[in-house]
Design a protein that fits this description.
The complex is a heterodimer of chains A (209) and B (106). Chain A is mainly alpha-helical and 209 residues long. Chain A contains 6 helices and no strands. Chain B is 75% helix and 0% strand. The chains are: A mainly alpha (209), B mainly alpha (106).
């Protein structure tokens, strides 16, 4: 009797059922994405609140070159999502070589995004933008701008490293196609966040003509 | 060891053309956003349209690129309302206070 109970308990505790018919890694990533989306939401709502609260909120981005430049960054990030989804599809087919190539392409676009973003940051720093001050208006702008875009850029950088590990492991047969899919979820989420950062932080801050 | 990492809910194979169309739609909506900024639409109207477009873009990414469309309905009914509810709770405070702030400034 004792053995039967122990067996039943052990079966319950070792799983035997997968919520939503998916692996624990994928479910874990979805949970992380929900929590991280709330982090970014809180940050963007705080940005909107600070902006509304400040009568002299700066709009420092001329359409050309700033918005053109950030649009290129957006298209680069979108391109990385397309290559990632192709990589996930190739992994599901079991085509290891093609998967690694698509993931490497994703890493290339991710790295390009970071380089472009850093260039933009240095340009703004040269113009006098600091965390606590700027030459255009409310000093809060710098903290908010660097805070929002910096947290996003950190996610992109972590994503590039994560994809590097996944491509190495998948290429060597150590990781499964589910691992590629889970890394894809993370990467698309990073892209998704930018779909809100770009209009709120950049397009709503275009300098008046 | 119980292998919970095993892929139980395998998705149907989605043609590459579908992903390409979704991507083109995302680029198109981005183009519309940039155009709205170029013509300097009135800020409140522009913000409303931009957020609407962002939600559509987010939906395209979540449902097609993140494959939520092909997951079990129970996952959708759990993930989406929970996230929307939490963001809604944050907006509940901000949204109404924004009218107070706007009234104070006018």
């Amino acid at each position: 009797m004792h053995d039967v109970n122990q067996e039943a308990m052990s079966s319950v505790w070792s799983g035997g059922a997968s919520p939503f018919a998916m692996g624990s890694k994928k479910l874990g990533m979805w949970l992380f994405i929900v929590s991280d989306s709330l982090t970014f939401s809180a940050l963007l709502i705080a940005y909107s609140y600070a902006r509304l609260n400040s009568p002299n909120w700066p709009r420092p981005f001329p359409f050309s070159p700033s918005i053109v430049f950030s649009t290129i960054m957006t298209v680069v990030l979108l391109a990385s999502s397309l290559t990632m989804v192709m990589g996930v599809a190739a992994a599901a087919r079991g085509d290891r070589g093609t998967t690694v190539k698509w993931i490497l392409a994703t890493m290339f676009f991710g790295t390009t995004f970071i380089v472009l973003h850093m260039r933009e940051w240095f340009h703004l720093i040269d113009e006098g933008l600091r965390l606590t001050s700027n030459p255009w208006g409310s000093p809060l702008f710098g903290a908010v701008f660097f805070g929002v875009t910096g947290l996003h850029m950190t996610h992109v950088a972590i994503g590039v490293i994560y994809l590097g590990i996944i491509s190495l492991g998948f290429g060597r047969g150590k990781f499964s196609s589910e691992d590629v899919e889970v890394s894809g979820l993370y990467w698309h989420f990073v892209d998704l966040v930018w779909m809100f950062v770009f209009p709120l932080v950049y397009i709503m801050s275009i300098s008046p003509k | 060891m119980n292998d919970h990492g095993a892929t139980e809910g395998t998705h149907p194979a989605v043609p590459a053309k579908t992903f390409l169309w979704v991507w083109l739609a995302l680029v198109f909506f981005t183009g519309v956003e940039v155009y709205l900024g170029y013509i300097e639409l009135e800020p409140k109207l522009m913000l409303s349209i931009l957020m609407g477009l962002s939600v559509i873009k987010a939906g395209l990414i979540i449902f097609w690129f993140m494959h939520l469309k092909y997951e079990k309905p129970s996952l959708k009914f759990w993930l989406i309302p929970a996230t929307v509810f939490c963001i809604g709770m944050m907006l509940l405070v901000f949204f109404w206070d924004s009218f107070r702030l706007a009234a104070l400034r006018s």
